[in-house]
Amino acid sequence: MDQDRIDFSALDTLADAQAHERLAVRIVNAASAELGRRANMLSPFAAIAGWTVPALSAAALIAGLALATLATVDRSAAEDRTMPEALRLPAPVAGWLSEDRSPTNSDLILAVEGGLP
Amino acid sequence: MADSDAQRVARALRGDPDAFGELVRAHLRAAQGIALAALGDPADAEDVCQEAFIVALERLEDCRDPARFAPWLFRIVRNRAHNHRRYRRLRETASLDAPAALAARSRDDPDRDLERSQLRQTLSEALQELPEVQREIVVLHDMNGWKHREIADVLGIPEGTVRAHLSYARQALRARMNSGELRGKD
Questions:
Q1: Which of B24, B42, B57 sits opposite A13 (nearest CB)?
Q2: Which of A33, A35, A85, A90 could form a disulfide with A81 if both were Cys (CB 3.0 to 4.6 A apart)?
Q3: pTM reported for the whole predicted model
């Protein structure tokens, strides 16, 4: 112990551990509003991270509904139709497609004069 | 292993009350010593400490080097203590109730006898006559038990200067406390 030390015990109100703890608790309580504000203040990344779980859940639900719908649709009728029929293309266009060729000028004139449906 | 100040600051920035509590408990005594050195009154020093910790939390983003939270906090404590001192001077000049306030405070602390109350006043008055840097050094060293190196680090002055100030402060305090002039006042 330093013999030259000045005795400040009369002023040292926090030397007592209980007094120290009381003041510490008082300060932390007084700071509760600011601590709460900080806890509620999410960063943009934290906000995005917070949305990932609900977004993934929604995506999974939609995927499940879509698969269930596809599984229950009667596919036999669709399988009997050709692509032009399924797309409801006019007959001249369907013909060009089936022949795998581009329409000539005369094809186009005939199609227009004939009246496309 | 306990968190470092940098880790505590990072957690307190996110509003972690435990981290803020750890910062308070780690630095409260030194902060109170610095406030006491400026004000001389333990109750005022505690109030200033509370204010300073709240201000520090509100401005925590401004603490550019969280590992050196303590020196940053102590600057806030010092500024708040100076503001409080100016306010107290104005209040005491404007009011004649200061002796009554002191008496009321003394009634709040019945455990402390008259001798201790006088000693506190004597110490406080003697302390106020020292230059600020010497007040902080002698309080941090002799009351809070800090080492010369730690004080030098926080105050940003050489260790040798801390020793010299401490020696001068002790001599001045002893001389002031032993002087008949002060006893006469008591």
A1: B42
A2: A85
A3: 0.65
**B15/A39 touch (CB, cutoff 8 Å), yes or no:** yes
Which residues from B are below 8 Å from A8, CB to CB?
123, 139, 142-143
Q: Does A113 touch chain B (CB under 8 A)?
A: no
Q: What does the pLDDT read at residue A55?
A: 86
Tell me if A8 sits within 8 A of B143, measured CB to CB.
yes
Nearest Cα of chain B lies from the Cα of A32 at a distance, in angstroms, of 7
- pLDDT tens digit sequence for A100-117: 888 888 888 887 777 655
Mean pLDDT computed over every residue of chain B: 85
Q: Token match 């500024």: residue?
A: B79
- Yes or no: say if B71 and B156 are a contact pair by the CB < 8 Å rule: yes
Check if the interface score ipTM surpasses 0.85.
no
Q: What is the pLDDT of residue A114?
A: 72
CA atoms of B121 and B26, how far apart (whole Å): 28
Q: Is B167:B83 a contact under the CB 8 Å cutoff?
A: no
Task: Give the tens place of pLDDT for each residue, B152-183.
Answer: 998 999 999 999 999 999 999 988 888 744 44
> Tokens 């010092």 correspond to what residue?
B78
* Contact check, Cβ <8 Å, B16/A35: yes
Where b means 16+ CB within 10 Å and e means fewer, A20-55 reads beebbeebbeebeebbeebeeeeeeeeeeeeeeeee
Query: How close, in Å, is residue A23 to chain B by CA atoms?
Result: 8
